[in-house]
């Protein structure tokens, strides 16, 4: 698969990539927030987990109004995370142990603390300083009505009005996210130049790739026109659509004036030339929610980006039909542009996997099973820190919350902090080895059993902890990287597929134990791994396989 000039696949095409949210990973200086030296200290853990690369969410200078996605200097390190020498050491140390490093780039907006925005505030309407953002006069006699009616994806209006030096209300600027994240104007050549400089800056430091934040957002159309249903559109974009008729949702998402405009591809064609001018297979992955999903393939045409997150599994149900359709659709779509697929079960913007699967013991069972299914699919897989520990969303009090989504929706949407709680490394009370200080978000007391230390101790062959399950499947998947994918069964309860001629994978999404017949060539087989504790683990069987309720099993053909 994805053979390039007859060579084996490139490192990222079948890679398992671990997302680090630096603020919540490991704190070494005792201030209660994770840092880059903390990441360095845990590289051996990541190596042992079996991932091929790490992706670091932003660690750049930032007032941290949106977890660092409000960047005020993309070419420096925020003191809360360390300094530039720590970033360079991290890249070097990761490379030494054979881990690649992907960093975030946030091209849709700058923090309002960025020097460009400050200069824009100090300059006149119509100035070149303001032209780097979307500044417009308001409507109405005194300009008090925003230039259009777009809503921020985080809630509230997408425009804020500035105050001029004489204390009078002035122009408005666009922010699709928080009011501290001013959208950049990508029709401005300076913006292109500046981002190209940032890409080169980090490529020169040795990073292996970039995760491109809101990659579909840079180009805006019809910026001075009202949208017919701005609130509906925002709800649809935030997947808050349980009571929205499907047709309405489809129609809203299929034409968003600020997302997935055709002009965005020119930018990535230029970026691709930069990536290709560096030695060593540098890569890029787009965060781009597009509709219909087939448009995702446009971002990974051969002269554009390398990967795009496939978010089908981020919202997937534990349902054989749903999963089989999602897999089939994805494989067909990417085949058309010969890009490898990607799979994502969770990230820092979504509920944690166990919670999304319903929580509790059953949620854990389903989460283990869907993870094992995902790890067996062709292409790249992304693992969000803590997913490998089976962490649920942490319950938080409103006083603890920091996500701008919580504030901008006036608490209606609790936001994403529950998935961003620091990792429990060991059983030390209150701080769980994450910090010697006070964690920036409280770690639930009952996470002691879920700590890395606790899960490493639970190491019986038949009862794999979450961590052991992930370690094992991330190692075993390498056996069939690059092997063909073929369906074996797609029923209402069971999905089965083979990888190459030696491996078969089955998921049972029902609550009953089921039996499947294996293909003839698998007359004699061995169970390699199963998400449910099961007796035949590691034993061989003949012709048929028992599938425990809510489980995934991998088998290997013997002879
Ligand atoms: C992306 C990030 C998210 C952030 C938003 C605005 O979706 O993943 O965390 O809030 O962009 O930058």
- In CATH, the topology of the largest domain is named TIM Barrel
Q: Biggest β-sheet: count, sense, barrel? A: 8 strands, parallel
Binned, the helix content reads: 10-25%
How many separate domains make up the residues? Answer: 3
Please write the CATH class name of the largest domain.
Alpha Beta
Distance between the termini: 24 Å
SSE blueprint:
Elements: E1 16-20, H1 36-41, H2 43-49, E2 53-56, E3 60-61, E4 73-77, H3 84-96, E5 100-105, E6 109-111, H4 115-121, E7 135-136, E8 159-163, E9 169-174, E10 181-183, H5 189-204, E11 209-212, H6 230-237, H7 246-253, H8 264-276, E12 283-286, E13 307-308, H9 320-335, E14 342-344, H10 353-356, H11 360-375, E15 380-384, H12 404-408, H13 452-457, E16 459-460, E17 463-464, H14 466-476, E18 485-490, E19 494-499, E20 503-508, E21 514-517, E22 524-530, E23 540-542, E24 544-547, E25 551-557
Parallel strand pairs: 1-2, 1-15, 2-5, 5-11, 11-12, 12-13, 14-15
Antiparallel strand pairs: 3-4, 6-10, 7-9, 8-9, 16-17, 18-19, 19-20, 20-25, 21-24, 22-23, 22-25
Helix pairs in contact: 5-8, 11-14
This protein binds alpha-D-glucopyranose.
The site of alpha-D-glucopyranose has 10 residues, from loops.
